[in-house]
Amino acid sequence: NAGVTQTPKFQVLKTGQSMTLQCAQDMNHNSMYWYRQDPGMGLRLIYYSASEGTTDKGEVPNGYNVSRLNKREFSLRLESAAPSQTSVYFCASRLDSYNEQFFGPGTRLTVL
Amino acid sequence: AQSVTQLGSHVSVSEGALVLLRCNYSSSVPPYLFWYVQYPNQGLQLLLKYTSAATLVKGINGFEAEFKKSETSFHLTKPSAHMSDAAEYFCAVMPLAGTALIFGKGTTLSVSS
């Protein structure tokens, strides 16, 4: 039982490049989330998926797109990376409405 | 909009001293409340959660938190700090069941010997 896994762990991009951050969970959770963490800002919600086939915007969705590929996988795509997207990205999942979120180890992204 | 305020971005204690990390939330109804810990270069790990049962919640590693509705607070405490407690701590609120967590900005705990 690996929990929530994220790939890659580290990534450096140039401005304008695109990439997809992958997230998978093996806990049969229904909901999945993408957050970004910036110093002094805590975690801010980018997008979430309450169930397979649905996605919704969070607090800071601009510049990102997501895909809930199936119940296990939830990817985050940067179409044209900007330096302001330099951050640590965390994926999380939750079984149901009343439980806590489980977090992956994070992806450290630097956009030059 | 719902919000979480963590008082003090940095707290320093001596080993063996009391740890008190403060968290206040804004909500018109009692929410679900959580404390997470993040060790350097790692993801977030749940310490404890309040889900409208007992107001004093015990978590892992000797931490506990008390829900006080009148003060809209959910402060985290540990009677005796250990060096291994040095980490960043996040308070989070789920305003309504099924909604996403809203996080505070975090408090970094330093423990000196």
Summarize the helices and strands and which ones pair or pack.
The complex is a heterodimer of chains A (112) and B (113).
Chain A: E1 4-7, E2 10-13, E3 19-25, E4 31-38, E5 42-49, E6 56-57, E7 64-68, E8 74-78, E9 87-94, E10 102-103, E11 107-111
Parallel strand pairs in A: 2-11
Antiparallel strand pairs in A: 1-3, 3-8, 4-5, 4-9, 5-6, 7-8, 9-10, 9-11
Chain B: E1 3-7, E2 10-14, E3 19-26, E4 32-38, E5 44-50, E6 56-58, E7 64-68, E8 73-78, E9 87-94, E10 102-103, E11 107-112
Parallel strand pairs in B: 2-11
Antiparallel strand pairs in B: 1-3, 3-8, 4-5, 4-9, 6-7, 7-8, 9-10, 9-11
Concise description?
The complex is a heterodimer of chains A (112) and B (113). Chain A is an all-beta fold. Chain A is 0% helix and 52% strand.
Task: Give an account of the 3D structure.
- The complex is a heterodimer of chains A (112) and B (113).
- Chain A has no helices and 11 strands.
- With 112 residues, chain A is an all-beta fold.
- In chain A, a hairpin with a 7-residue loop joins strand 9 and strand 10.
- The relative contact order of chain A is 0.34.
- The mean pLDDT of chain A is 94.
- The termini of chain B are far apart.
- Chain B is globular.
- The mean pLDDT of chain B is 92.
- Chain B is mainly beta and 113 residues long.
- In chain B, strand 4 and strand 5 form a beta hairpin.
- At the A-B interface, strand 5 and strand 10 of A face strand 4, strand 5 and strand 10 of B.
